[in-house]
Each structure stands twice: as structure tokens, then as C-alpha cells.
Write a structure and sequence with these properties.
By secondary structure, the chain is mostly helical. It is 70% helix and 6% strand. Strands 1-2 form a two-stranded antiparallel ribbon. A hairpin with a 2-residue loop joins strand 1 and strand 2.
């Protein structure tokens, strides 16, 4: 194809623009949509990462019993992580989920892991589960 047609230029421009529009559109949706914002505070926003709160509560109880720590200490550890704290301040569930996932990955890289019932879990993941016990 030696010549660029109007149709091929429009199609190519649309292919380049769609991911950019999707990314920034999602950011605007997250900031502007009142359904995604919560008034219950930091704890409920963080515990919304787990779809099954009862299972997370059981995991949190096992973790707290195994390590001898408290749920308030887990909350302080989570608030001490800059990425998680800024995601909670934005009050966007999508940002919180991404921040918790990133924190869990860094926990695995740095060796902050615990083994509970044969499962190897990240410290951040267990701290969020401990918040479900409150």
C-alpha cells in the first residue's frame, strides 16, 4: 500500500486514541462517580478488596492468632504504605485494589510472607484480612 487513504488514517488514529481515552476516561469515571465513593472510612474501603468477607474474617482471625498482633496494628501498617494510603484517600475502589495488589507483589519480593493452612500469603493481604475482623 503506497498511499495512505483517509479511511486508513482514521482507523489508525482510532487505534492509537482508544487506549488513551479508556485510561483517562476510567480515571475521570472513578473520581466523578458517586457510587464508587464510600462514606464508611478507610476500613470498609480496604475490606471491599475481598468479595467474601466471611472467608476473609476467618483468615484474619487465623493470622492474628498466629502472629499475636492486633487489627489496629494491621491498620497502622497499611496506613504506613504510601501507595495504599493515597489510594484510600482517593476513595476509588479500583485504585485501592491496584495499590493492594502492588503492595502484595512487593511483599513477596521483600520476603514479607506468612504461611497459613498451606497457603503462602503476603503481609499486606493478611493485614487487609485482619481488618475484616473489626
Amino acid at each position: 500500500m503506497n498511499r495512505w487513504t483517509r479511511r486508513s488514517l482514521l482507523f489508525g488514529g482510532a487505534l492509537i486514541a482508544l487506549p488513551v481515552i479508556g485510561y483517562y476516561g476510567g480515571k475521570l469515571f472513578c473520581r466523578g462517580n458517586l457510587l464508587l465513593r464510600t462514606q464508611k472510612g478507610d476500613v470498609s474501603l480496604l475490606t471491599s478488596v475481598y468479595p467474601d468477607v466471611a472467608a476473609a474474617r476467618g483468615l484474619g482471625k487465623k493470622y492474628l492468632g498466629m502472629t499475636g498482633t492486633t487489627a489496629t496494628a494491621a491498620l497502622k501498617r497499611l496506613q504506613g504504605q504510601n501507595l495504599v494510603a493515597s489510594a484510600v484517600e482517593s476513595a476509588c475502589m479500583a485504585d485501592v485494589a491496584v495499590a493492594v495488589e502492588y503492595a502484595c507483589r512487593s511483599d513477596f519480593k521483600e520476603g514479607r510472607i506468612h504461611c497459613i493452612d498451606g497457603w503462602i500469603l503476603a503481609q499486606t493481604e493478611l493485614d487487609v484480612a485482619a481488618l475484616c475482623t473489626i
